[in-house]
Amino acid sequence: MLETKIEAATRNPDWQAYLVPENWSRFMPVDHATWDRLFDRQVKLLHDDVVSIFIDGLKKLGMTEPGIPRLERLSDRLEHLTGWRLVSVEGIVPDPEFFAMLRDRRFPIGNFIRDGKNLDYLEEPDCFHDIFGHVPVLAHQPMADLMEALGRLGVEACANGHGDLISRLYWHTVEFGLAKEDGRTKIWGAGLASSFGEAKFSLEADVPRPRFTPEAASLTPYRSDRFQPLYFVSDSVEEASRMLNELTDAKLAVLGAGEAPSYAPLDGQPA
Ligand SMILES: [Fe+2]
Questions:
Q1: 262 falls within a domain
Q2: Domain limits at 42?
Q3: Residues 230-270: tens digit of each pLDDT
Q4: Considering the domain boundaries, does residue 91 fall inside one?
Q5: How many domains does the chain have?
Q6: Which of 91, 146, 162, 256 gives 20 to 30 Å between its CA and that of 153?
Q7: Which residues are designated catalytic?
Q8: Is 194 exposed, middle or buried (0-12, 13-18, 19+ CB in 10 A)?
Q9: Exposed e or buried b per residue across 67-99, where buried means at least 16 C-beta atoms within 10 angstroms of its C-beta
Q10: Which residues fall in the annotated binding site for Fe cation?
Q11: C-alpha 219 – ligand 1 centre gap (Å)
């Protein structure tokens, strides 16, 4: 009986327990000014080095309006396009609950913004990273479907002890992935799209940029404490989505038994 209960809990994590009020009215003019500075700086920096679905999403969702967006309004626009809604959280959500949110087409948004005096210092993802980095691409149907598929797979993988494999796949695509478009390598991941320092670094630094495959990415550790030592490049967002959509937890387990590619970073702690 006890085992059945644990089984049910791990396969159906209670993500609603992590929701908090958005408290949008708590944001002061200085906070909205911080958002505007970050937004303008990042749009100029990315220019056409970011995948076109990102710029399209900013426009389709009306995200060029000044000030920190209200989640309700942005969710209404997003839900109309792809069925996704945004929910307010205090900070990082544990993996099982995070993936359960994605499975249910909910994306968590931190209900705070960084200190405007230090634009590039971030202890954990704030609403600029979460909204600016992640939301535009959620307006693109293949990406919206991919995120839900990763959510389903993530819940299953966490319950079966494969959480590290799905986390790496998520990290190397949705957060720090690059993708080919019109013959050029462009920024795709939210961690890159929302970072002033790492956006250009990912495209220009002398680091490996291997072709993305689920096999390689699931076995390659990542770093959460510094810029990535390598960036996977997908043939296209749609192609990466197709590959990841075909994955099941059983296939993930097989991938996990493989050997890490030789370009895997050897320094530091594996993720
Ligand atoms: Fe993120």
A1: no
A2: 5-256
A3: 999 999 999 999 999 999 989 988 888 888 777 755 454 44
A4: yes
A5: 1
A6: 91
A7: 129, 134, 175, 194
A8: buried
A9: ebbebeebbeebeeebebbbbbbeeebebbbbb
A10: 129, 134, 175
A11: 20
